[in-house]
Design goal:
Elements lengths: L1 E7 L5 E7 L11 H8 L2 H12 L8 E2 L4 H9 L3 E7 L11 E8 L10 H21 L4 E3 L27 H13 L2 E10 L5 E9 L5 E6 L25 E3 L2 E5 L8 H9 L4 E6 L3 H4 L3 H12 L2 E6 L1 E2 L2 E6 L8 E3 L3 E2 L3 E3 L15 E8 L1 H10 L1 H4 L2 H11 L20
Parallel strand pairs: 4-19, 5-6, 6-7, 11-12, 12-13
Antiparallel strand pairs: 1-2, 3-4, 5-19, 7-8, 8-9, 10-11, 13-18, 14-17, 15-16
Helix pairs in contact: 1-2, 3-4, 4-5
Pfam families: CN_hydrolase
InterPro entries: Aliph_Amidase/BUP, C-N_Hydrolase, C-N_Hydrolase_sf
Protein name: Beta-ureidopropionase
Length: 417
């Protein structure tokens, strides 16, 4: 639960300050959705949900049933399991294009002080039953969280964490290839990549593993944060793979890694290249970004007429050596709480309830990819966009002598008579 206490503001008004406890819960609940459900009358909760989550084809998202074995595993291994469905309107000339997609969020398995190999292997063992549950539930495309095979150590600026980096065809990929082949499943694996062909350069990379266990390709993170404790440019720089869209047997997918979600043009580029589902594997903490989390992905899905899968890791990762943020505040040994809350957003502005803020989880969602074109037809964003104007502005902006197009009121600086 959270503790609250009252303080008196300068204007005499009483304000309530809330402090979350270490369990990462929200006033004792594992998500905003569960908090509202437990505390609002059913008719009020229905209306609030309509505003917060939107409607898909005129109604709330349906729950879907999964095999009993998946629920047994989630109970035994203590991970959150939720399943929903996005519909599309029935078409006369196209059959439905339904794909089952899964997101996994998880905390690390051992303390960051444990031997690196033990940490890595423990994460494999933790994820194995969750991936098995996804496969047994018929998931076609599965995406893991950013740098899933290690703690998110990029706050520390310590180079020893580079030992977790590996080439795209090594241990973590091999671990997932077996599941991809076993379950006929495409898997997106965001890792810390070591590029042995280019001087052992390190990248933040998503490896796309095909449903036959093959490596389809990879994408490297386009935007690198330099904010708060996120000192990632100590380890890797901006990616060089552009905005690739990977055509799979289940549809066209892309990966907008973490900080890229703050850049609208990054989302746009994946859409221009034809993406139908864009995954956003992330690692972000409550104090920094939680109010933005339900907004940015949903807005991207609306603006670009595709589905978005947002994944955030869970828990508080404490490191052996304290570090500072360069903000004058005391040194500390952790980022803060990674708040999970993974969810899907659809092009019609609807979205699923999120997974827990404080537990490992698997979110499974059926989506009819026909909805992408239906929303393009409805809103005409591609037709009404003025790309030629944007291109002209950007071309001018990149020149050293660029001047903003500002028209000032001629009376703005005149002295009053």
């Amino acid at each position: 639960m959270e503790k609250t206490h009252e303080t008196e503001a300068d204007n005499g008004e009483v304000k309530v300050e809330t402090k979350a406890l270490n369990d990462g819960s929200l006033c004792g609940y594992d998500s905003l959705h569960s908090l509202l459900s437990a505390n609002l009358k059913p008719e009020l909760f229905q209306e609030v949900s309509r505003l917060l989550l939107g409607l898909n084809c005129g109604r709330a998202n349906d729950n879907i049933a999964l095999p009993e074995s998946a629920y047994v595993v989630s109970s035994e291994c203590d991970f959150d399991l939720k399943a929903f469905c996005f519909h599309a309107d029935k078409e006369l000339l196209r059959a439905p294009r339904i794909v089952r997609v899964g997101l996994i969020q998880n905390s690390i398995a051992l303390p960051t002080t444990a031997p690196f190999l033990d940490q890595k292997r423990a994460i494999y063992q933790k994820l194995k039953p969750i991936i098995e549950a996804a496969g047994a539930s018929g998931v076609n495309i599965l995406c893991l969280q950013e740098a899933w095979m290690m703690p998110f150590a990029f706050c520390t600026r310590e180079k020893r964490w580079c030992e977790f980096a590996e080439p795209v065809d090594r241990e973590s990929t091999q671990f997932l290839q077996d599941f991809a082949l076993k379950y006929n499943m495409v898997i997106i694996s965001p890792i810390l990549e070591r590029d042995v062909n280019h001087g052992e350069t390190i990248w933040n990379t998503a490896v796309i593993i095909g449903n036959h266990g093959n490596i389809i390709g990879k994408h490297r993170k386009n935007h690198i944060p330099r904010v708060g404790d996120f000192n990632e440019s100590t380890y890797y720089i901006e990616g060089n793979t552009g905005h690739p869209v990977f055509e799979t047997v289940y549809g066209k997918i892309a990966v907008n890694i973490c900080y890229g979600r703050h850049h609208p043009l990054n989302w746009l580029a994946f859409g221009l290249n034809g993406a139908e589902i864009v995954f956003n594997p992330s690692a972000t903490v409550g104090e920094l970004s939680e109010p933005m989390w339900p907004i940015e992905a949903r807005n991207a899905a609306i603006a670009n007429s595709y589905f978005v899968g947002s994944i955030n890791r869970v828990g508080t990762e404490t490191f052996p050596n304290p570090f500072t943020s360069g903000d004058g505040k005391p040194q500390h040994a952790d980022f803060g709480h990674f708040y999970g809350s993974s969810h899907f957003s659809a092009p019609d502005a609807s979205c699923t309830p999120s997974l827990s803020r404080n537990r490992d989880g698997l979110l499974i969602t059926d989506m009819d990819l026909n909805l992408c074109r239906q929303l393009k037809d409805k809103w005409g964003f591609r037709m009404t966009a003025r790309y030629e104007l944007y291109a002209e502005l950007l071309a001018h902006y990149l020149k050293p002598d660029f001047e903003p197009q500002v028209i000032s009121d001629p009376l703005l600086h005149k002295k009053s008579l």
